[in-house]
Amino acid sequence: MKIVIPGGTGQVGAILDRALTAAGHDVVILTRRPRREREVGWDGETLGAWAEVVDGSDVVINLAGRSVSCRYTEANLRAMMDSRVRSAQVVGEAIGAAARPPKVWLQMSTATVYAHRFDAANDEATGIVGGAEPDVPGYWGFSVEIAKAWEAAQEEARTPDTRKVALRSAMVMSPDREGVFDVLLKMARLGLGGPVAGGRQYVSWIHDHDFVRAVEFLVARDDFTGPVNLAAPAPLPQRAFMRALRGAWGVPVGLPATKWMAELGVFALRSDTELLLKSRRVVPGRLLEAGFTFEHAEWEGAALDLVRRVRATRRGAGQ
Predict the structure, then answer these.
(1) Which of 14, 60, 148, 245 has a Cα-to-Cα distance from 85 of 20 to 30 A?
(2) What whole-number distance in Å separates Cα of residue 3 and Cα of residue 246?
(3) What CA–CA distance (Å, rounded) separates 120 from 27?
């Protein structure tokens, strides 16, 4: 198949590019800074010559959008919104104008659309969309609005011959440098991988191999449309999540952090505490109902596999 991945130069794009190319597919990456073969330039905002690679493709997987790993200032939140919405709109325009449109358009979304909660898990049928929770920072609601607008841009696109799926993805865990797992592992190795603000908040995640398998499953299943949760079926509290990660690496102790300590830490990392403090308890209802099986359903085993791969990579690099 010919697969086009707008915004495919980040961590998730690299995961998909490696796996789909290895599987024999023709993968084309749309990027603002093309440097390699199979990369095509675009600006993520306007139609251009890049739309020619969409015409005649089989699958489009749109990952474009400003990174969430930043301070959540008003300007950065607006940039997150604009980059996601406009890129989804222009991808829709390219698909709608294609003489031979792709059969399926997978649009990246986020599990952050769901409410901050501890009492029950959010699936697609009964999950509570966030934005109105009491006792959380007001700007957390803007993150939910970004997710809703992102999905709406895809839903409203006029692409009658193309099936559309929104990927409400949890954090994708892979051994790649600078990915989310790499950051969390660094914290654990430095002895900082303890509970944050008590550690009750749930962490939803998905192993990179299962993420790829779920994408392939959704491409093959022509009965899927609309939002789909891409998350392992066993989210767990942050305290237990980091304990398992420390155990996988062999770090016996992780220092706890209060809320204000977390704020200092993420300020130094130029990130935001929402990524640490929001309780994301998300489960993959639709995938499980359709018979999808996870190779890494439990975090303890997933963490061991990821640590093994990190160590193998670093041994190979002589580090």
Answers:
(1) 14
(2) 37
(3) 39
